[in-house]
Structures are given as structure tokens and as C-alpha cells.
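During the second year of the project, the team shifted from modelling isolated chains to modelling whole assemblies. The rationale, set out in the original proposal, was that interfaces cannot be judged from single-chain predictions alone. As a representative example for this report, we include one of the complexes processed in the last quarter. Its constituent sequences, exactly as entered into the pipeline, are reproduced here:
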Amino acid sequence: MGNRCAVIGVGQTYYTTKRRDVSIAGLVREAAVRALDDAGLTFKDIDAVVIGKAPDLFEGVMMPEAYLADALGAAGKPMMRVHTAGSVGGSTALVGASLIQGGVHDRVLVVAFEKQSESNATWALSTHLPFSASLVVGAGGYFAPHIREYIRRTGAPEHIGTLVAVKDRLNALKNPYAHLKIPGIDRRMVESTPMLWEPIRYLDTCPSSDGACAMVLSSESAVTGTPAWLHGTAMRSEPIFRAGRDTVSPDAGKDCAADVYRQAGITDPRRQIDVAEVYVPFSWYEPMWLENLGFAAEGEGWKLTESGATALDGDIPWNASGGVLSSNPIGASGLIRFAEAALQVRDMAGEHQVDGARLALGHAYGGGAQFFAMWIVGREKP
Amino acid sequence: MREVAVVAFAQTRHTDHDGGLSEPELILPVINEVKELTGLKRFGFTCSGSCDYLAGAPFSFVSALDALGAWPPISESHVEMDAAWALYEAWVRLQHGDIDSALVYGFGKSSLGDLRKIMTLQLDPYYLAPLGLDQLSFAALQASAAGADRKELDEIVRRSRADGRNNPYALDLPEDVTDEYAVEPIRTADVAPITDGAAAIVLATGDLARELCAKPAYIRGIAHRIEPHYLGMRDLARSASAADAARAAGVGKGPVEVVELHTQFAHEEPILRRALELPDGTVINPSGGPLAANPVMATGLIRIGEAARRIHDGTAARTVGHAAGGPCLQHNLVTVLEA
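Output from the structure prediction step:
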């Protein structure tokens, strides 16, 4: 894992459907300045900038890091642009951390964003190369069959997804940055919304958000303020078209988790991890990832969700922030998971703080459930 | 820093037209070639560079994974930048000390769309892109600012094309150069040709590097810098970021026998030569450079590969590979390689 690395600053914008008041540059700068303020630093203290976002077609700006260099104080410094599909926010944090773990820099600013209101992500995702017609519309169309297969395999009752949809939105009410705030949300409300992609109803899906998230990462000698120490970092990818790969519980996810747990000395994630921020863009992905990440045995994830263990007052809270289901600036969604994990172990998560959180998991996935990025952060030095 | 070397390099025989191959089909042979050259089947880390806008669809890098045979799953990442930056990311990853090899690749088919207009979409979407400046127009602004001598530029084009004709991987471009303008003062021959292609490199550390390659090309310095985006905020006659990157990479710490520059326009060569403070004797772009083959998103990686190749074949002991991104050389990466 190389040299020690810590998160010393986190900055987020308020997530919302349309940020008409700022340009893309204004949006990313807002998050960056808040992260720097949190760390008690300025752009001058930063050695390099790493920026991530999902496909450029989402805003119609190709390789926007060139245009955003000025707003992020990157002029005269190294700047990198990461793109690994939906996992990109997580990968961006890992590429930034790598620069410190590799001993190349002492302080790195990582930023990820999406300004979905500039375009239409669902249709940007539905554009395919000539002669390979798209059979699905958007990410929901792609993932719904995987969810149906999960239900078929496990016999999970149909209200499980609804429970997650309600739980994450209740958490969002405690997070000032969250996009969806639905006071009084309950199972009946979720079940009364239209079916989009069987079994995904309108309130089982993530919103389309504008927003950005930033973190300041630091080497051990350059730490300021309250650090969240990295205990493990890992990425895994697998091919989308490989016959026989299990798209419901992908090997890449299992391998990535095993790698990051090994680095952090975790043998029982359910007991040892205090809080997890996991990329759940459709409610059913909570029980699916509970199994994939080893928090529950195969076929048992839905039972953990049903028992309330993943609620804010449960023994293993998942997505205390409200998660992707409550805020989804796509390219930033992974970075927000990593940042919220850091906030928890820094004891800075405010109303959605999990008491005594010492070890937290940040998780992101993307593509056809084939790209994974994870980190474990802790209150103590590894 | 940990010793990291380029131990294998492969590229496609680049074409000036769509040869009917999909991106994974383009990549597969070069991946296989570097696997054969090194005997490695798995790598500690894999990183690639590509651009969705060339294909006109999101996630152009996703299907590329199928060409790798990424099974069991691999530790992998992607930059939406020239693959030279993927090589940088892999070099950083190798500094952690827990892995000893990395695969890097890049690919692009600029034949599929109108590259000149596509590059407009890289500009600030509020203040610059609406002006409709295409790639040739903003390059012409730089050419005007630099004020390069026409004779010198013609000589650069003739030399690049001649070297390209001797390079089996580059395009066969005619010796005769027309005096037709693309956008004044840039002539059509000053412009890197539309090209489809891919390239791959294997990096290895320490003992493994010596095991895999008789003459590893060691990365003695690698650095990159970006500068302000707005053309009006820069002195376009110079490349401050290339100069900074060259100093950080240590170009001037020894002789430079060969340099491979990512020159998408003839006038960029004198700008970069000055920025890198290259001595007179340095051989520039013996492969023909981008003016003889420009598979966008792989072109910068190929510069590092070509610079490494001179060390692999024993014809040079110290070479430099350069890559650029953004309008008018906004972002520059410099790699110093030594035997």
C-alpha cells in the first residue's frame, strides 16, 4: 500500500436537480474550496489535482479537465483525469491517494462532479456504436434483470427494495447536502410510485443531481486538522461480455473486497466495520452488495436488510448519508461514498454520525457491475 | 524513487482510414504482442487512455477490457487522456512497492468523426466553445504567435514524412508537399493526419525488468504540468508547462540523443524544442512522429514507446518521450529514459 495517506479535508456542494446559479467550473470550485477550508489550507498548498467524472457526454464537454484547470488552481501543477464509469468517483480518490502512497506528492486535491442538468444522462447512456443496437434504456434498464435474478435466486420478498428506499431517504433527512428530502416517506409512498423497470419503482431509483465533492489527501508529514487514515485501497475490473460471469454477485467485487479487507486486517466485515457507504443506485443493490461484500452469507443479504441492521441505529449502518438513492451527481457519487466514510471516522458527519465509528468502508461500482473501487478508512493510523 | 523500466512496446500498423476493426479488435494484437515479448500473462496493474468522443458513445474503454482477457478480475484504471498519462498513473502505482509489473495501452479511431470539430468540445463550454473555433483554428493562433519560419516548417514536414515512410507502423505520406493552407498560417501538410491505431507498453521494476528485457529503458524522470486553459492568458509562443515538466523530469541532466515529441502541428516542434532546451545534436522524431501517424489517445504513449525502443535496440543511451493534451499544448508530460 506504500506510504501512509490520510483524508484531511472534505467539501461537498448541496446536491440538487439543477444548479442554475453556477457554471461547471463554479460547481467544482465550490466543493474544492470547502475541502481546502476543512483542511485549513489554500490552493497554494496543493501539489497536484485529480479530477473524475462519468462520461463526457453527460455535459457535452470533452475531457473537461483542460477547461477546469484554472478553477481548481491546477495551473502550473500536474492534473489527471480519471474515468472508470460509475465507479469513477471512487477511482479518483484512489488515483489521488496513489500519488501520496507512491511518495510522489504530499498533498493532493481530488474532485469529482456531475452537472446532470446540462444534458440527459439516460439518453447519453443509451447511445451505442452503429450496428450494436441498445436493447435497454439507461442504467435502470440494464440492471433490472440482474435484480430480478437476485430475487429468483434468493426468494427475497418483494418489499425488501422498498425498505431500503425508505431507510436511505430517512437518513437523507439528517444530511444537509442530500438532494432528496421526503419528509414522511414510508413504504406506502414508495409502493405507490410508478413502476419504471420491473421491479424498480420510481422511488427505488437514484435521482439525477448536480453536484461536486472534493477531498484533500495528505502524506503523514503534511497532515493538518483531523485525519481519516487509509487502511486499505483496491480496484478491480472484469470484462462486460465474458460468458459465465456472475453479474448478480461479480467476482471483481468479491476480489476487490478481499483485497481491501486483507490490507486493513478485516476478517469479519459485519463486526469489524462500523459504518459503510456503499454505491446503491437502485434499492435492491443493498442486499445484493451485502452478500457481495461479505456482510452476509450468499442468499442472506435481504434478511440483514429486513432485520434493520443496516439502518442508522442498526449494528452495521449502510449509507447513513442517504447514499446514492438520495443524491446522485453520477461522477461524484463514488467520491461522496469515500468522503462520507472519511467524515464518519473523523466524527464530523453531523446529524447522521454513527456513534463511535472507528473503521468505515467506502465503495463504488460501475459499468455493467464490472468496475469496483473501495477503501477502508480509520480513526487510528494503520 | 523505485526503478521502473519500459520493457516492451507494441503498436498497430496505423491506418489513415477506418479499417473496419472495432476498438477491441484494434487493441487485441498489440496486447498479445507485449504479452509475447515479456512472457507475462498477468500484470500487477493495468491502465489505459481513450476518449469517448472519438467513438461518439459513452464508455469506449469498457469493451476494451474484453481484449485483455481480464479474468480473473484485474486491478485496473482508465484516464480520459492520452495513454501517456495512463503510463504515468502506472508508474506511480509501481512506486508503492507491492507489485512489479504494469500494462498500459491506448487507442483511438479519429477516422470515425470530424476530429477538428470534436476538439472544439474540449474548450470552455460557456465562453470558448460557442465561438466555434475548431482545432485547426486554435492551432493557427499558436502558429501565428510563434511566428515560425516557413522554410523550417517545410523541412520539419519533409523530414517527418520521410522518416514515417521508413517506419512500417506509420503512414506513407507523399514527399511532395502542397502549399495549400488549412487555416492560415497552417498548411495542410503541417497538420498531423487522421489516423486509427493503438499501442501498448509493459512497465517492470528492478530484477523483473532485467529478466524480461535485455536492455530495459529505465524511467529516470517523469513529470507533467498543465497551464491555464484560456488562450488569452498564455504566451502561445512558448510552452511554460512543457518547460516546467522537462525541468522536473531532469531532461537537462544529461545529453538527449533522441527525442520523440507529440507535435500535432509542425509549428509545435520549435516551441517544444525550446521549452525542453534540447541540444542541437538531438535527433527529433526519428519515427516520423505524429506528423506521420497520429492515432489520437495513443500518440503520446507511442512517443514514450519509440523513445524506449531506441534504448531497447541499443542505438541510444538517453532519450526523451513527450506527450501533450489540451488546446495549444496546454498540458505536457515529459519522460526521460536511460539505458
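Residues 5-121+208-222 of chain A form a domain with the Peroxisomal Thiolase; Chain A, domain 1 fold (CATH 3.40.47.10). Chain A touches chain B through 67 residues (CB under 8 Å).
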